[in-house]
Amino acid sequence: MTIYNFSAGPAVLPKAVLEKAQADMLDYRSSGMSVLELSHRSNEFDAIIKEAEALLRELMAIPDNYKVLFLQGGASTQFTMIPLNLAQGKKAYYHVAGSWGKKAYTEALKLAKSIPMQPELLASSEEHKFSLIPLYDSSAIDPEAAYVHITTNNTIEGTAIYDLPDTNGVPIVADMSSNILAVRYQVDQFGMIYAGAQKNIGPAGVTVVIIREDLLNKEPVLSSMLDYSIQAKAESLYNTPPVYSIYIAKLVFEWIKELGGLDQMEVVNREKAGLLYTYIEQSPFYNNPIKNPRERSIANIPFTTPNEELDKKFVKEAEAKGFKNIKGHRSVGGMRASIYNAFPKEGVVALIDFMKEFESHNINK
After folding, report:
1. Residue 100 among the catalytic residues
2. Is 124 assigned to a binding site?
């Protein structure tokens, strides 16, 4: 039985990457050591991290005046690092279109009790159960603010921002965890981009930060580990980095380049998502909660059947057929197909075939 992994993260990795990692597991490039055993100060790892950065810069067309950091702690640690480094003595705006944006805002509110900063809720769609991207009046943004924080893809709810909002000249800081390298964004339109690796880049354990050099903090912050300037000066080697996660990330970057680069990756992703959305749209049985097609995620596609009992039945039967981790997030229910970069088109086609079969057997129940 073929297994298709729809997990929202840690997520499916390219088979070619796993095979390469398997070949390197016991002896990396005739070093006599596994990548898991390499010192972060070794020549072998120095080449790995430099190649990883060079590939990411090439794929995303990252300008020279941006630093690329490979950090730890997941994207959630960035919820604290960002205001700690960028917003002291300033306002910081939060655009909340999903659960992770809300968490980022909540962490900023918590931090504001300890440092001089002013978090502002710019807009929220929570009252609509995060089923849309909230609008706001850009003239309400203080042009002297530190940043406007957005989430480009809402993993749980299935919305995405593709056209960047007007922020009245204030730098955009973007959590791009679940659609980095899935679609093309112009890096120079952001002050900072950050992403946990475990969706489109590699295994959990490394977080990519891309930050414009002029935004690096001038004064030390609470902890050296949480200090962007220190991390940048140390070239992501202030302490022992997640060596293996960075190695896998490098292999994934190579895989995307061999595929044809980021633009080709986007073509593939839009085709996969289009197949599933088209089927859901024409079906009287299934429903996608995101009504505006321009706001639909191409990475995470939630859907439901007519009732919760059928949802549970769908998940049970899908799991038995090899469609793993198809259950929706506990906060929204239903089902969720996370079809990141490495998820194969044939898996989407197979899911649609199963959905058709399930619909035919259950449409009158």
Report:
1. yes
2. no
